[in-house]
Amino acid sequence: MSLITSVLVRGINNLSDARYCAGMGADYLTFLLDPALPNHLAPEAVKELSGWVAGIGLVGEFSTLPVLEINTIARECGLSYILLTRIRSTEELAALELPVLQLMNWVPDMLPEDVDMRFQQMQAHVAGFVLPTIPPQPLNGIQLAHLTEQARTYPIWLAAGFANGKLRELLNTVHPAGIVLEGGNEIKPGLRDFSEMEAVFEELED
User: φ and ψ at 86, to 5 degrees?
Assistant: First the structure.
């Protein structure tokens, strides 16, 4: 399936999700590979899952694991990107062997200039910013305008929920680098409800 924007799916932990998302045209699958993260996967499990899909980028999500261990796991799993859940020092970022995506939380009452400063400070060291936290309220006009300006300056990946049900309108207005979806758990091995994810993929179909 051809999509109108790039899609990154976080938290892949089963074969059903991996194969479904790859088949629907997702560009990247993200795996929790840091023991500090709940429900993390061992590198062996990631290699097994990724062996069933082709032509899709693999992303490892890490929290507190030391840089040397991240690099080792990244090589072992054949990752394309590293997604960091915590901000690291410039020295640590420089020591990572793969491009870095930085997870950022949406904070509704944060001053726009403070948000811009966070992006500016990290711009030279990361390949993009991932905002997976859905705003508690629909974006107002001022928030939407500022987000649009930020997306013109920085590669920003937004949770589908930012659209408040109007995904194509969000894409046409903000022009983010891509959309972030969340993987889920199988009801039982081989059985998974994809209704919510399917609705998003269908809206993104070219």
Answer: -125, 150
